[in-house]
Amino acid sequence: MKKPSEFKEGEQDSSYGIGDLLGLGSQSVRKNYYPALQERIDELEQERNRYKWLFENALHGIFQANLRGGFLACNPAMARICGYESPEALTEKVIRLREQLFCSSSEFDAIRQELLNEGSLSARETRFQRADRTPVHVAVTLLRRPDLGPEVVEAFVADITERVLARQKLEQLNATLERRVEERTEALQNANVGLRYQIEEREKVERELVIAMEAAKEANRSKDKYLAAASHDLLQPLNAARLMISALQDSTLPEQETRMVHQVHRALEGAEDLLADLLDISKLDQQAMKPDLVYTDVAALARSLGEEFEAVAANAGLGFRVRTIPATVRTDQRMLTRILRNLLSNAFRYTRKGGVVMALRSRGDRLRIEVWDTGVGIEEDKLRDIFTEFHQLLPQGTGGRQGVGLGLAIVERMVRVLGYDIDVSSRPGRGSRFVLTLPLEPAQARPDLARADSLQNFADGFDGVPVLVIDNEPAVLESMQLLLERWGCEVLTAASKAEAVEALEQTGQIPAIILADYHLNNERTGYDAVHGVRRHLGKDIPAAIITADRSDDTRKILRAQYLPILNKPVKPNRLRALMTSLLTSASA
């Protein structure tokens, strides 16, 4: 039998099979068949075919070559990379890798030396020669196979021509960009010369603006000081006039005189509200009004406001109800009172028939204070405009007492300072609803607060209650005395602490309460006078400060002295409520 190597190319020996491989004749094979061995041989054949398919159909070039000669074997992809029709053509034509495959002999020598030293190299970029002698950029990975020969290598080759061309194009773009950058830099340097001049001019303008802004701020501060001083000076005579008018209103007068007194009362009330609004809006815009948070019984506050507006409702022929629930919040009591008072005033101002309701409702840990009215209502597209300054729902001359449009602007700013929410809904011709939402204090965190229900009722008069009034304005003293005497009080007046002590010594009276102005003559203050009288009598007489000074500093000082405050101009219903509170606390 011939050996396989003895057959010529293309010649096969059909009689040479597995039996010959095992050293057995065909007869022996048929007699001694090994199924397991045949199965393994089939598996090896399948694996061989798979690798052969991968070799022939790979996208990258694969070859085996001798560095001292040419190709030993290659796949079709390698032939395509090098521009040959078939692997056989490439193998036949390229018999010297150094001269026929590599574009640079020196680079081939370097690669060969690295392979001999390291045994392999990975993704080395180089250039091969195609069949037409044009270069092709490739990335080649080489592995030396000393088991097959001293300089036999196997290689994987990727055509990276597109990547190299793209990189070259990018380098060209970078070069172009750098050139443009240099040109732009030069242009910018030239422009900077002009810009420096413009910057210097702008800095000059900015300095002038800073000076102008400082002048404007100083003018604004001066305006605030002037407004505060002028308001204080204006509020004093207004306060005296208001008290006088209130005393006249409690008197029996002819119908015409009664109507005239009522008109004067309304005019004074409008002037007072305007001054108070101007002061508050100025402080809010200057962010000079800081909240002073204290625990507040909102139900008691609502009932107090209800008593205050009962007369307003009666005069207007409107219904008025206050619905409360137990509720305590931590808030600035003065600002919350002002918010609710403005909402109620606004409701009464624009309500001609029907009535107004103020209701407290709890929603989880939030308290809703709602003010309903059956007034003229507001168009939907104007709901947000009502919170702007000098905005009025009705034009002048349509009836009802008109303001200047600052009430709701003050409400919006105070709500913002306190961090609350306010919402408004309305139907034209049917009425409006304002809802103020603020956080409730947990029941266990609420301190014991005096209940308004415990206050004594002095609605019919104070029946001889002795009251000491201290004020450095004679007109205010006279009007206060007249009003309080109309309420049944025994009034003792003084312009200073010394006069008060002297009057008490002469009369031997002990006042039930003290009402003192804050700013007295010779830079003395009302709380100095109150403490002087208390020391003289040896008793802690209930007292309150009545002042036109609305500054936060004054309020903090008086709060530290535990002295309640009533701002001028004094409204009779608020004065009555204050006196009732003082007398109740004295009897508790």
Automatic annotation (TrEMBL):
<dbReference type="InterPro" id="IPR005467">
    <property type="entry name" value="His_kinase_dom"/>
</dbReference>
<dbReference type="InterPro" id="IPR036097">
    <property type="entry name" value="HisK_dim/P_sf"/>
</dbReference>
<dbReference type="GO" id="GO:0009927">
    <property type="term" value="F:histidine phosphotransfer kinase activity"/>
</dbReference>
<dbReference type="InterPro" id="IPR003594">
    <property type="entry name" value="HATPase_dom"/>
</dbReference>
<dbReference type="InterPro" id="IPR003661">
    <property type="entry name" value="HisK_dim/P_dom"/>
</dbReference>
<dbReference type="InterPro" id="IPR004358">
    <property type="entry name" value="Sig_transdc_His_kin-like_C"/>
</dbReference>
<feature type="domain" description="Response regulatory">
    <location>
        <begin position="466"/>
        <end position="583"/>
    </location>
</feature>
<dbReference type="InterPro" id="IPR036890">
    <property type="entry name" value="HATPase_C_sf"/>
</dbReference>
<feature type="domain" description="Histidine kinase">
    <location>
        <begin position="229"/>
        <end position="442"/>
    </location>
</feature>
<dbReference type="InterPro" id="IPR000014">
    <property type="entry name" value="PAS"/>
</dbReference>
<keyword id="KW-0597">Phosphoprotein</keyword>
<dbReference type="Pfam" id="PF02518">
    <property type="entry name" value="HATPase_c"/>
</dbReference>
<keyword id="KW-0808">Transferase</keyword>
<dbReference type="InterPro" id="IPR011006">
    <property type="entry name" value="CheY-like_superfamily"/>
</dbReference>
<dbReference type="InterPro" id="IPR035965">
    <property type="entry name" value="PAS-like_dom_sf"/>
</dbReference>
<keyword id="KW-0175">Coiled coil</keyword>
<feature type="domain" description="PAS">
    <location>
        <begin position="47"/>
        <end position="95"/>
    </location>
</feature>
<dbReference type="Pfam" id="PF00072">
    <property type="entry name" value="Response_reg"/>
</dbReference>
<dbReference type="GO" id="GO:0005886">
    <property type="term" value="C:plasma membrane"/>
</dbReference>
<dbReference type="Pfam" id="PF13188">
    <property type="entry name" value="PAS_8"/>
</dbReference>
<dbReference type="InterPro" id="IPR001789">
    <property type="entry name" value="Sig_transdc_resp-reg_receiver"/>
</dbReference>
<protein>
    <recommendedName>
        <fullName>histidine kinase</fullName>
        <ecNumber>2.7.13.3</ecNumber>
    </recommendedName>
</protein>
<feature type="coiled-coil region">
    <location>
        <begin position="167"/>
        <end position="222"/>
    </location>
</feature>
<dbReference type="Pfam" id="PF00512">
    <property type="entry name" value="HisKA"/>
</dbReference>
<dbReference type="GO" id="GO:0000155">
    <property type="term" value="F:phosphorelay sensor kinase activity"/>
</dbReference>
<feature type="modified residue" description="4-aspartylphosphate">
    <location>
        <position position="517"/>
    </location>
</feature>
<keyword id="KW-0418">Kinase</keyword>
